[in-house]
Amino acid sequence: MHTTTSNVDQIESLVTDLASDHWQTRQAARHSLIRFGSRAVAPLVKALSDPHWFVRWEAAKALGQVGDPAAAPALVRILEDERSGIRWLAAEGLANMGREGLLPLLEALQHDSDSERLREGAHHVLRALVKDDSQGIIAPVLAALEDVEPVIQVPPAAQTALRALTDAAKGRINKSTELRREKL
Fold first, then answer.
1. DSSP string of the chain?
2. Domains (ranges, CATH) in the chain?
3. Can you give the pTM of this predicted structure?
4. C or N terminus of the chain, fewer CB within 10 Å?
């Protein structure tokens, strides 16, 4: 669906409403932004850096409910937010994205494993996803997060999981290509 100027203006106005002093206005704006779906992702991502915590909270909640993988890197970044409620919403949003939310999370864990907030958020996400981990890709990262020295154990576990997920995705693409060729 093409975003018209009217939609862009409407989305921007709704994002501005996230800063309202009235929670009802903020809530109504969030619900409307969720209905815009992927078209609202970029302005909502921008709102994640707002100095007012309640704007960040509303934006994180909306992004988690929209579930667009384009928001995953931003949700990973706000796993570092000073407010635990915002971090929790970011983790919930990433978990709701499933594997689509994992790639940026694993990349962050490779480079920032010394961040306790990131590790806590990652633990929340991975605990939610491990039940669907039929290939055993996530479980070693979760174990590393629970290790006595996660700062040391997490980066290689995250790198291995990231490689496995990337290889699995390439395998699905190659298999799909082969199937199309067979049909021709």
1. -PPPHHHHHHHHHHHHHTT-SSHHHHHHHHHHHHHHGGGGHHHHHHHTT-SSHHHHHHHHHHHHHH--GGGHHHHHHGGG-S-HHHHHHHHHHHHHHTHHHHHHHHHHHHH-TT-HHHHHHHHHHHHHHGGG-TTSSSHHHHHHHTSS-HHHHHHHHHHHHHHHHHHHHHHHHHHHHHHHHHH-
2. 1-66 (1.25.10.10), 67-184 (no CATH)
3. 0.86
4. C
